[in-house]
Design brief:
By secondary structure, the chain is α+β, with helices and mostly antiparallel strands. It has 2 domains: 90 residues, Orthogonal Bundle (Arc Repressor Mutant, subunit A); 54 residues, Ferric-uptake regulator, C-terminal dimerisarion domain (Dna Ligase, domain 1, 2-Layer Sandwich), CATH 3.30.1490.190. It contains 6 helices and 6 strands. Strands 1-3-2 form a 3-stranded antiparallel β-sheet. A 3-stranded mixed β-sheet has the order 5-4-6, with no helix packed on it. Helix 2 crosses helix 3. It starts with a helix and ends with a helix. The relative contact order is 0.11.
Length: 153
């Protein structure tokens, strides 16, 4: 399956979720969804999303973008992240969301993902010792990306 076909497939699934929850598939929502599908490797803030979609819909307001992102987060289509930069950033919620973490550059703000979940054994030990059932965790590493690290040396 091509990347374009995967994006269309994902888009259709999201539209189905919206319809099942009695929400309209407005042109603005379509544009916001496409922005996330086309920039799936980024963790977009509302402002960044607004800058992407305003080219297609110059009359779209930032408030519309905020409301749509909140709606998509409530429906668990998007996941909200706080990387300590004063902005909430969004990414698609995935079935593997429990198994990826974020690497955040303190210099340039770049966010990348670390997909290997090395905490499985630690979670099991915590559950065993504390009689506590863990359903999720959120781990962020703050430091310097390769490019910024080289300028600091």
């Amino acid at each position: 399956m091509t990347k374009k076909n995967k994006q269309q497939d994902e888009y259709n699934k999201i539209c189905d979720i919206l319809r099942l929850n009695s929400y309209k598939i407005t042109p603005q929502r379509q544009s916001i969804l496409r922005a996330f599908l086309e920039h799936g490797d980024r963790h977009l803030s509302a402002e960044e999303t607004f800058m992407i979609v305003k080219d297609e819909y110059p009359d779209i307001g930032l408030a519309t973008v905020y409301r749509t992102l909140e709606l998509l987060a409530e429906l668990e289509i998007l996941q909200k992240n706080d990387f300590g930069d004063g902005r909430i950033r969004y990414e698609f919620s995935g079935e593997d969301e429990h198994h990826h973490h974020h690497l955040i550059c303190l210099e340039c703000g770049q966010v990348s993902e670390f997909d290997d979940d090395l905490l499985d054994n630690l979670e099991k030990e915590i559950e065993k010792r504390n009689e506590f059932q863990i359903v999720d965790h959120d781990l962020k590493f703050f430091g310097y990306c390769k490019e910024c690290k080289s300028t600091l040396e």
